[in-house]
Specification:
- The chain is mainly α and 109 residues long.
- Helices cover 78% and strands 0% of the residues.
- It has five helices and no strands.
- Helix 2 runs parallel beside helix 4.
């Protein structure tokens, strides 16, 4: 079993955590902050999904087809800045294969 060293600083840290845990106002602030972060993450995910669908529609308009693996990668992308760069990539690509090869270089974040 793991045992923490009996250092005064560690003991003080645990005492501080206990004080914070027993303070209803701080716990309510923590709960609200946590909910705000979850809400922001869900909102960003919804925006990213919407942008992915628009990008897929643009690709369909330009190339008349979008392979399933390209669609899946686009729908897995959560980084909103990546989506903005993809519009330029669509404009500059001469074929869906060229777009797909460039898309493979972009890490999913």
């Amino acid at each position: 079993m793991f045992r923490l060293p009996d250092a005064p600083a560690i003991q003080q840290a645990f005492e501080q955590i206990d004080r914070l845990r027993n303070d209803p106002e701080l716990m309510e602030l923590y709960r609200k902050r946590r909910l705000a972060l979850v809400d922001k993450a869900l909102t960003n995910r919804a925006i990213a999904e919407g942008k992915s669908k628009i990008i897929i529609a643009l690709l369909n308009c330009k190339f008349n087809c979008v392979p399933e693996d390209v669609q899946n990668k686009l729908l897995a992308m959560w980084n909103l800045e990546q989506h903005d760069r993809l519009v330029t990539l669509i404009r500059d690509s001469e074929s869906i294969e060229e777009f797909a090869s460039q898309l493979r270089l972009i890490p999913v974040e």
